[in-house]
Amino acid sequence: MAEEELPSNPIPPPPPLLQHPLPPKFVEVICKSSGRTRRFAAGTEAGFAIYLINKKLDIGVPLALHIEAVKEGEEPINFGPTAVLVDYGDGWKLETVTEVEFAGVLKERVVQPTKVKIPKSIGGAHPSSERAVASQPGISFVYIGKIFLAIIFIFVLAAVFTLALENLPTLILFINSSM
To answer: Which residues contact 91 (CB under 8 A, 6 or more apart)?
Structure first.
């Protein structure tokens, strides 16, 4: 039997495919309050990440206000509540900014709580679709004092009107007698 020769292929083999690194399936955010690194799925909104980070913090630990990407010698990139978290590559780290670091700005401008829309999962893990993430405690002594002062003001105003109505007939007789 004769050996069959394989014909030589004049077409060169294709060049190896360019190997593009796949984007990470998650992003890591360093929480400055707890010192822990939290992982979030790619495409997570910054507001939702802040909500989850603050939810897991212990009592008395400063809350995270927002997330920023930082790199040595570069201007930080701030993420708003609806911005999607992105890994910028080598040297860039995603970190939280806490109330303590933001204290100088808080004196001039009050930071309002942001509303975060929480996507409902199939299993219904999140019962409400919208929750407020508060950056400050809801009830303070100043707040209670203002409410108490308003109640006292209402009683004083009621007393003034009561006295005016009790003396109204006397005032009417005085006006009629002088005419």
So the answer is: 71, 72
**pLDDT tens-place string over residues 145-161:** 999 999 999 999 999 99
13, amino acid identity: P
Contacts of 96 (CB under 8 A, 6+ apart): 29, 30, 31, 32, 33, 50, 53, 64, 65, 66, 67
What does each C-alpha distance from 105 to 60, 100, 102, 110 come to in angstroms?
20, 10, 6, 8
| CA–CA dist 81, 100 (Å, integer) | 19
Residues of the chain with pLDDT under 50: 106-110, 125-130, 132, 134
